[in-house]
Specification:
Length: 704
């Protein structure tokens, strides 16, 4: 770095490194060995000055034989104001709240716990355990005005209070509630029950009053800053405003078209904000109950809302994976915050109005610097073409010539992507409900899809026109494949059948019973046998002509999600929910190797063209490559969401994978081929000479 340390250029470079490190902190805590890889994959999208700094190290790591690493060709879709990600929960994070002094955050989760986090460092201070029950979900968390205690509401029918300093449970009240709100003086609190609201004495835990009027589950409640009013939000699509002193119902607000998930008072208490499953927020006059504004822009239900301390803006959390910030006076959308890989369930604002905290189904909390976003105008770094969309990418495949990938999933069209540029080439017609599997014909002209609507469809890969369809399955179709010559299509379904179809007409040629059903299928390179990945934990090999079962491959301890065949037909690779990959001898059915290391179900897999290495995509959010001979892990890359599918380029170490957050990623396995070649050379070399001291002297003499 030639510029002085105090120069504008140097400061900009250091800021970029600091930002990248902060955003990757949660990954590096879990995978410290990936420091270089993760930093590069963020810094590569910065300016030329930053690229020059990392160029030297990049050159070192790209030399033949160097340890392989994963290079993303597509940046993550996230807002510039994203500061930090907090991980530690093992299930959906349902709600979050900030202490009144702004020093810590509390989160509630479906993993039966609450966690208290240090806001400045992101460190997990306490884990609050005590909720039980079959599921044990913790629905909500609320902080007392003095920040000394916390209330949580759980699926186990308990309202619990906790000491925020120690994390110890103080009291448990038997009452099935979905949320709670505390009076400004902390002497009483209100809980959202079904279908009533209850008031409680904080000191004794005694029930003070029951407010009746809703006709369905009450999802949330709020207390006005003066403590005089209570607002409740319900599944009956209504909000109600109550007199806190008498329990009298003052107003019923019924203009939402869906369930009302949350409500909040403005700081002065004159307005109420509501968040609804109808994708909108509304602002109401708290005194008259009159609707003032409707805030539209979300494309999914709105789960939560909060008002800034100065009352000037509102933040909302939605099923569309985003948070949005709105002008509280005009209703104008000020910015959209992207970065979560799944539904955003909760949001809260720090007392100084600088930070927004969000809670998500992706098991994380995220911190956003809203002051920067509003001051400078929010910028979201989108993938150049691979824009993130709602839903998940559950299936992908590559064209035989490697020019394009195809992706599909839930709430997504069938999409075709250019490999070189990552550009979206075309959206094909929406293939129905959810695509569980897809395949490209050997000539690259057609795409077959397996749908949750029980249909197999065949599409023109260039025009997007549906050419053919097969409706013979009685349940969801989970996988499909073309035969090597393109004359046949096979499909598997949860209806416990494997079907062989004529590709030119989709006429059924053969129906084969598959006990337990199957998740995917593949042809052998010659097309003479078929392998299926079973829901019953087995793989089965079938004669492709008469449907006879040839052998059963047993070893997985949970359902098998995917199966692929090596290009020479000698091996089968399978991916299982038991968190393993397994390699099998296709001729004998014997298990050759187990690849272990994933922390979640393995959903898809692929074998390299030379068969020396394999890749896996897992719900643990990682894509990994493995040595196909030793089972050693060669590289790993964490991605934003749990992975559902992967496809490997036919001639390059390039993979496409889709995640649960709607992201579609291109990942290059840099150096993997040269590394494997150098390993083979090393293993084929004779062992090094073990020279005695006198012999070493002679050897050194001859070297001279």
């Amino acid at each position: 770095m030639d510029a002085p340390l105090n120069s504008i250029k140097t400061k900009a470079i250091l800021k970029a490194f600091s930002r990248a490190l902060r955003r990757e902190a949660h990954i590096l805590m879990q995978y410290p060995d990936l420091f270089w890889q993760q930093q590069f994959n963020r810094l590569q999208w910065e300016g030329d000055e930053v690229k020059q700094v990392v160029a030297l190290e990049l050159e070192k790591r790209s030399t033949p034989g160097a340890k392989p690493w994963a290079h993303t060709h597509t940046p993550f879709s996230e807002s510039e104001s994203l500061q930090q990600t907090l991980v530690g929960h093992t299930a959906e994070v349902t709600r979050c709240a900030v202490s009144s002094d702004g020093n810590w955050i509390v989160s509630a989760s479906q993993d039966k716990t609450l966690k208290i986090w240090d806001l400045s460092t992101g460190r997990d201070l306490h884990t609050l355990k005590g909720h039980t029950g079959m599921l044990g979900y913790v629905y909500s968390c609320t902080v007392s005005p003095d920040s000394k205690w916390i209330i949580s509401a759980g699926e186990d029918g308990a309202l619990k209070t906790w000491d925020s300093a120690s994390g110890k449970e103080l009291r448990s009240i038997s009452s099935y509630a979905r949320g709670a709100a505390i009076s400004p003086d902390g002497t009483w609190f209100v809980s959202a029950n079904s279908p009533v609201i209850k008031l409680w004495d904080t000191a004794t835990g005694k029930e003070l009053r029951v407010l009746s009027g809703h006709t369905a589950l009450v999802k949330a409640c709020a207390v006005s800053p003066t403590g005089r009013l209570i607002c409740s939000a319900s599944n009956d699509k209504a909000l109600k405003i109550w007199d806190a002193a008498t329990g009298k119902e003052l107003h019923t607000l019924t203009d939402h078209g869906g369930i009302v998930n949350d409500c909040a008072f403005s700081p002065e208490g004159t307005r109420i904000v509501s968040a609804s499953g109808d994708t909108t927020l509304k602002i109401w006059d708290a005194v008259s109950g009159t609707e003032l504004l409707t805030l539209s822009g979300h494309t999914g239900g709105v789960n939560s809302c909060a008002v800034s301390p100065d009352g000037k803006w509102i933040v909302s959390a939605s099923e569309d994976h985003t948070l949005r910030v709105w002008d509280a006076t005009s209703g104008r959308e000020m910015c959209t915050l992207t970065g979560h890989a799944s539904f955003v369930k909760g949001c809260a604002v720090s007392p100084d109005g600088i930070w927004i905290v969000s809670a998500s189904s992706d098991k994380s909390l995220r911190l956003w610097n809203i002051a920067d976003a509003l001051a400078g105008g929010e910028h979201t770094r989108q993938q150049p073409a691979m824009q993130k969309v709602t839903g998940w990418v559950g299936a992908c495949a590559v064209s035989p010539n490697g020019a394009w990938f195809v992706s599909a999933g839930w709430q997504q069209p069938l999409r075709v992507w250019d490999v070189k540029s990552g550009r979206l080439l075309r959206d094909l017609q929406d293939p129905g409900l959810e695509v569980r599997g897809c395949a490209v014909s050997p000539d690259g002209s057609r795409i077959a899809t397996a749908g949750s609507d029980y249909l197999v469809r065949v599409w023109d890969a260039f025009s997007g026109t549906q050419l053919l369809g097969f409706n013979g399955h009685a349940k969801e179709v989970t996988g499909c494949a073309f035969s090597p010559n393109g004359a046949r299509i096979i499909s598997v379904s949860w209806d416990q059948t494997l079907r062989i179809l004529e590709a030119s007409s989709c006429r059924e040629l053969l129906s084969i019973p598959v006990r337990g059903g199957a998740n995917s299928c593949a042809f052998s390179p010659k097309g003479d046998w078929i392998v299926t990945a079973g829901c019953d934990k087995t793989l089965r090999i079938w004669d492709a002509t008469n449907g006879q079962e040839l052998r059963t491959l047993s070893g997985h301890t949970d359902e098998v999600k995917r199966c692929v065949v090596s290009i020479d037909g000698t091996r089968i690779l399978s991916a299982g929910r038991d968190r393993t990959l397994r390699l099998w001898d296709a001729a004998t059915g014997s298990e050759l190797l187990t690849f272990s290391g994933h922390n979640g179900g393995v959903m898809d897999c692929a074998i390299s063209l030379d068969g020396r290495w394999v890749i896996s995509a897992s719900q643990d959010k990682t894509l990994r490559a493995w040595d196909a001979v030793t089972g050693q892990e060669l590289l790993s890359i964490p991605l934003p969401g749990g992975l559902h599918c992967v496809a490997l380029h036919p001639s390059q170490p390039l993979a496409a994978c889709g995640d649960s957050g709607g992201g579609f990623h291109l990942v290059e396995m840099v150096g993997i081929e040269s590394f494997m070649q150098s390993r083979i050379r090393r293993e084929s070399e004779p062992p090094a000479l073990k020279l005695q001291p006198e012999e070493k002297k002679k050897w050194q003499f001859w070297k001279k």
